[in-house]
Amino acid sequence: MTKFTGGEILTKCLIEEGVKYVFGVPGDQLYPLLDAIGRSGKIQFVTFRHEQAAAHAADAWARTTGEPGVCLGTVGPGAADLVPGVYAAFADSIPMIVLCAQNQSWRIYPDHGSTQGLDQIDLFRPITKWRANISHWQRIPHLVHWAFREATSGRPGPVHLDIPSDVLYLKCEDSMLEDGVVSRDRYRMTRPPIGDPELIRRAAKMLLEAKFPLLHAGGGVLASAASRELIDLAEQLQAPVTTSVWARGAIPEDHPLSLFPAGFGAIAAQSQADVVLLVGGRLGDLDFWGRPPAWGESAKQKLIQIDIAPEMIAHNRIVDLPIVGDAKSTLSEILKLIKAKPKAKPRPEMKDCREAQESWLADYIQQGKSDQVPIHPLRMIQDVRDFFPRDAISIVDGGNIAVWAVYLNRIYEPRTFLWPSDSGHLGVGTGYAIGSKLAHPEKEVYVISGDGAFMFNVQELETMRRLKLPLTMIIADDRAYGMIKAGQKGLYEARYVGVDFIDIRYDKIAEGMGCFGVRVEKPGDLKPALDRAKASGLPAVIDVVIDPDVNLAPPDFESVASVWLEGCQLPGGD
After folding, report:
1. What digits encode the pLDDT tens for the residues 272-292?
2. Are 410 and 253 a contacting pair, CB within 8 Å?
3. What confidence score (pLDDT) does residue 451 get?
4. Which of 44, 351, 389, 524 is spaced 20 to 30 Å from 120 by Cα?
5. Residues 190, 311, 162, CA angle at the centre, nearest 5°?
6. 259 within 8 A of 269, measured Cβ to Cβ
7. Domains and CATH numbers, the chain
C-alpha cells in the first residue's frame, strides 16, 4: 500500500483544485509540503522576500482570474507577516486560501511556551471568513474541501488553515483518509443560485416602468463574471451604469451609459434615479452609503438589491425589493423579461448627466496636458494611461495618487483594475503586479504608485527579476506621505510631523536588483521612458518627480460630492 506524507496529501488536494501557484516564504516546518509541491510538476512555489507581498500576490491572482489565490507562511513570524495582505483581501471579499505551518500538535501555543508559539487561529479570526486547525492527517482532504467551499461560496473571502508540522511529516495510507482527494465538482457548488422567480418578475416590472432607472454595480458583478449581462441590461433599458470603485471595469468607462465612480455625472444620476438596481455591492462609504443627498430619498427612490449573501441585503440602506442570488444568473433572468419588451429610447436625463460629467472632467483633462516642471500628477496619469492598451492590468497603490488616478486612469475591461478599495492598504503594488502578471502573462501590467507606498514592499523587485516578469512600475515621487501632509497643511497650518522623506533614487534601487530604472523630471521625457522600459523586457521602475505643492491639494471624493450638492444641481433636479 502506497504511503503519503501529509504534505503530499495536501498537495494532491491543491492540484485537484487547479492551483498553479503557491505564494510565500519557506520555513523548516513546511519541508514535506515544499518537497511535494516541487516534485508535483503541476504547482510552482513562488518565493517572496516578505509574506505580506506573497499574500498580495494571491489576492491579485484571485482578483484577475476569479479563482482563489493560495499563500503560505511558516509558524509564528511567517504567519504574522501574512496578516497585512490577508486583511486587504478580506476587506474586499477576495477568495484566498491562507496556509500556515504550526508547531507539532503537542507543542502548540500556549501549552509548552514553544519558540515561535502563536495562537494563529485567533490571529486570523478578524480577517478571515473561516478558519480551522488540521489536527490529524486523516482530516486533510475534508478540511481543504471545506476551506475552498467557504472561500468561494456566498460572499467570498480569505480562509485560514493551520497545519501542525507533525501532520505534514507523518506518512499514511490514503485508503485511511476520512475523505478522499476528489475533484471540486464533487464537494462544492458548480452552478450559482438564481434569485426567486417572482421577485425577478417584480424587479423587471419596476425597471420597465421607471422614468429614469439606474444600475449600480458592486464587486459581485466581477466575481460572478456578469459584466456582459449588466451592459446588455443597461442598453436595453437605456439606463446609466455607475459602479463601486472595486467594480471599475464592469462596464467600459467610455461606454455611452457609463458614469464612473463619485464623479458629478454619477452623483447626478444616483440622486435623480427613481429606481436603482444595486447588484453585488453593499453601498459603503465610497458610495456615500447609498444615502441622500448623493442618492435619492427613499420615499422617492426605489431600491432593488441583488446579492448572493443574505446578510448583505439592506446592509446600509433599506431596500424595496431584496433578491438573494448570484449576480450573473439573476441578471440573466431579469434580462430575458426586459428583452421581451421594446428597447427603451435614450433618456434626456442621461444626456444631462453625461454633460455634468464632461464639464466636471474638463479641468482635470486640461491639467493632464500640463507641461509644467515639476510634473503635474495628472500629466503623469494621462501619459501612462495613453501608453498602455485597453486590456492592460492597471494597479494603483497609494494615497493621493489613488485619488488622482480616479480622474484620468480609465478602465475598460473586467478584472483589469486592482486597488484595495475597502482598506486603502499601502504597499500592494509589487505583490499585485507579480500575481497579475503570472495570472495573465499575455497582458501588459502597470502600477501607478506613490513613493511612500512603493517602499513598503520594494524588496519584491528582486522577486520580479528572478521570475523574469516584464511589467512597469511608475512612481509618483513627491518625497512625502502626500495625503497625510496635505491634511496637516489644511488642518494644522502646515505643521508637518512624520511625513517628509529624503530624495531617493528609486530607479537606482531597481538597477541594483537587475531591473530597468530611469528617473523622469520633465513631462516630455515620460513617453520615451515608457518605451525604453517596455523594450528592456525587464521589470521596470520609472521614478517620476512630481510637483509636491500640487500634490498637497488634490480633489477628493468628499469635496466632489459637496461641490456638486451645493451648487451644481442639474436642470430638472430636485
Report:
1. 999 999 999 988 877 888 888
2. yes
3. 97
4. 44
5. 65
6. yes
7. 3-186 (3.40.50.970), 197-355 (3.40.50.1220), 368-558 (3.40.50.970)
